[in-house]
Structures are given as structure tokens and as C-alpha cells.
Design brief:
CATH topology: Rossmann fold
Bound molecules: adenosine-5'-triphosphate, magnesium ion
CATH superfamily: P-loop containing nucleotide triphosphate hydrolases
Distance between the termini: 48 Å
Mean pLDDT: 89
Radius of gyration: 19 Å
Structural class: alpha/beta
Strand order of the largest sheet: 3-4-2-5-1-6-7-10
Number of helices: 9
Low-confidence stretches: none
Number of domains: 1
């Protein structure tokens, strides 16, 4: 590729992600705060962390919602063991499904569990918009949004059009995840969404003698945070109690006690 083409590509990318100055970012009436949980890389624990932060926050007597914006791969129904279809009110607004005191909306509630989503980008974007505007969220102290992986169209629309209070980026310590997380930070910066911090997930394993081992490498997120001048919120270890919770369809309750404390502390930072 010659250098002219490179310049054009960069310019195109910039045009695509820089918010239009005339664009007014929308609020959701009654929702005090919107917190986006994202990772540019897939499978790093975004949905798991998002669900646990939502539950930890709701335990502080706050009114919490969770929007599963991962239209192609919704995980919130499995995490909360919620599979019923939402009802609609007389204005055709969807009533969220309530689990563990959290108002939940997910594409997974609306489609058959085994059917693949074969929608193109614009349909996904309109589904997300509809989840924001046509759901009875009521009064919420905080709406957590579990974003799909990547920095694609749906996320971009979301970041450009909605008044998101802050974002948290989930990464594992591995180089490939850190590289993508770096892109995620840049995207939020360019769409003027504050990055509250990085949460390193699957950071290490604790053996029976409380010794740590680092199968995915050490200090990946430390370096990223230093280079990008963002906060490292915490490091969550690999632990089988996450699996236990998912298998029970109940978030948080069966987690190891020290991990619960971590989620409590992080949620404190989010909602304060
Ligand atoms: N700290 C952890 N320890 C053990 N297992 C974990 C941990 N974090 C997440 N997992 C497991 O890893 C798998 C992937 O997690 P999850 O679905 O939350 O990732 P994701 O980033 O949302 O994925 P996707 O990009 O597909 O949406 C799940 O089976 C989850 O239970
Ligand atoms: Mg997910």
C-alpha cells in the first residue's frame, strides 16, 4: 500500500469516528447514569463483569438496569437464568425482565435461543436504539450496557449518539487483548466518552497455598494504563466460582468472597 492510500484510510477512519459537532448526544429520560462495559476483544469476560458490577451496585440500594447490546451473542439471559419474553405496555414499550433487582433487556429474550441472528448492521443499530428508547426503564440510578466486542458500527452509533457517562474497558493481560483495548480507549476518547478505567480480567490463578501464577502473562494492563494515562480499576483472577454462578443462572452470589469485595469496590467507583 502506498503512503497516499494510508493517509486516506486514516482520514476515512477519522471521519467515521469523530462525532459530528452539531450532534447532540441523547439522554434517556429518568436514567441518571449510563455506563458502557466494553472490550475491543471478544471473550475476555465483558458480560460476566458487567452482570457482576450491576448486581454489586444494586446491593447498594440503587435502582439498576442492564442493557445487553450484544445483539448477535447475547449472554445476559444465561447469566441471570432469564428466558421469558418481556411483556409490552399500552404504549408498546417493553417491560424489562427483573432478576436480582435489576431491570434487564436483551435480544436473547426476544429470539429463539438456538436461532442465529442474521441481521445486517443497520438492523442491529435500530434494535439497540429501540432498546434505549422503547423500554420502560423507569427511574434508574445507573444503566449498565454490555457492549458487543470490537469497535464496529453498532458501538460507534451507540457512542456517538448517546450521552454515556463513562466506560470501562475489560481486557485480559495478553498482548492481543491489550492491543485491542488500546483501540477501544482511542474510540471512546474520540467520541468524548470518559474512560473510567481498565479492568484486567483473568489476570492470574491462585493455588491452594495462595501462590499466584500468570498463564496469560503479567503486567499487560499496567503497561497499557501507564501508556494511555488511564486508571487500572482492578485485576480479577481466573476462578471457577464464575462458572458455578453461570451454571446456576445467578450472578455474584456464589463468587469467592474476595472477588465479591473487588466488585463492591469497583461499583463504588462507578456510582459515586
Ligand atoms: N475471571 C474469570 N474466571 C473464570 N472464568 C471467567 C472469568 N471471567 C469470565 N469467565 C468465563 O469466560 C467466558 C467468557 O466470558 P464472557 O462471555 O463474559 O466474555 P465476553 O467478553 O462477554 O464475550 P463476548 O465477546 O463473546 O461477548 C465465560 O464462560 C465466563 O464464565
Ligand atoms: Mg459478552
Amino acid at each position: 500500500m502506498n503512503s497516499d492510500k494510508k493517509v486516506n484510510l486514516t482520514q476515512n477512519f477519522r471521519d467515521k469516528i469523530v462525532p459530528k459537532s452539531q450532534y447532540l448526544k441523547k439522554k434517556i429520560p429518568g436514567v441518571k447514569k449510563i455506563v458502557a462495559i466494553s472490550s475491543a476483544k471478544g471473550g475476555v469476560g465483558k458480560s460476566t463483569i458487567c452482570a457482576n458490577l450491576a448486581v454489586a451496585s444494586s446491593k447498594k440500594n440503587l435502582s439498576i438496569g442492564l442493557l445487553d447490546a450484544d445483539i448477535y451473542g447475547p449472554s445476559i439471559p444465561d447469566l441471570f437464568g432469564a428466558f421469558e419474553k418481556p411483556t409490552a405496555d399500552e404504549n408498546k414499550k417493553l417491560n424489562p425482565i427483573i432478576r436480582q433487582n435489576i431491570k434487564l433487556i436483551s435480544m436473547g429474550f426476544l429470539i429463539d435461543k438456538d436461532s442465529p441472528m442474521v441481521w445486517r448492521g443497520p438492523m442491529v443499530i435500530s434494535a439497540i436504539k429501540s432498546f434505549l428508547n422503547n423500554v420502560n426503564w423507569g427511574e434508574l440510578d445507573c444503566l449498565f450496557v454490555d457492549l458487543p466486542p470490537g469497535t464496529g458500527d453498532a458501538i460507534l452509533t451507540f457512542a456517538q449518539e448517546l450521552d454515556v457517562s463513562s466506560s470501562i474497558i475489560i481486557t485480559t493481560p495478553q498482548k492481543l487483548s491489550i492491543t485491542d483495548a488500546n483501540r477501544g480507549i482511542e474510540m471512546f476518547r474520540k467520541t468524548n466518552i470518559p474512560v473510567l478505567g481498565i479492568l484486567e480480567n483473568m489476570s492470574y490463578i491462585l493455588d491452594q497455598n495462595k501462590n499466584k501464577s500468570y498463564p496469560f502473562g503479567k503486567d499487560g494492563a499496567n503497561k497499557l494504563c501507564k501508556n494511555q494515562n488511564v486508571n487500572l480499576l482492578d485485576k480479577i483472577r481466573i476462578d471457577q466460582t464464575f462458572d458455578l454462578c453461570t451454571n446456576n443462572g445467578i450472578v455474584y452470589e456464589d463468587l469467592a468472597e474476595d472477588i465479591k469485595i473487588q466488585f463492591n469496590n469497583i461499583s463504588e467507583k462507578i456510582i459515586s
